[in-house]
Amino acid sequence: MSRICELTGAKANNGMAVSHSHIRTKKLQHVNLQKRRLWWQEGNKWINIKISTKALKSIQKVGLDKLAKTNGVDLNKF
Q1: pTM, full prediction
Q2: Burial code of 18-46, b = ≥16 C-beta within 10 A, e = fewer?
């Protein structure tokens, strides 16, 4: 299973781990994903979705339906 937010499409970022002696090694900065059961008001049903915490914060501010429409996600598939 891939570590991608199902609502926003956020995925891992490439970064560098820098040691005390300034030796750089590659690392992945993963998205903070959570499995949540959210109530979809317009569809009048519960949705089980794997979502990032940043998207959860956006849902509280904007709303689930509006955020899904801006990202082009069909909530009926969940």
Answers
A1: 0.83
A2: eeeeeeeeeeeeebebeeeebebeeeeee
Give all domains of the chain, ordered by start, each with its CATH number: 13-77 (2.30.170.40)
The answer to whether 78 and 49 have CB atoms below 8 angstroms apart is yes
Q: How many CB atoms lie within 10 A of CB 68?
A: 23
Give the pLDDT confidence of 9-52 residue by residue, as tens digits: 999 999 999 999 999 999 999 999 999 999 999 999 999 999 99
Distance separating the N- and C-terminal Cα atoms of the chain: 16
Q: How many CA atoms lie within 13 A of 10 on its CB side?
A: 16
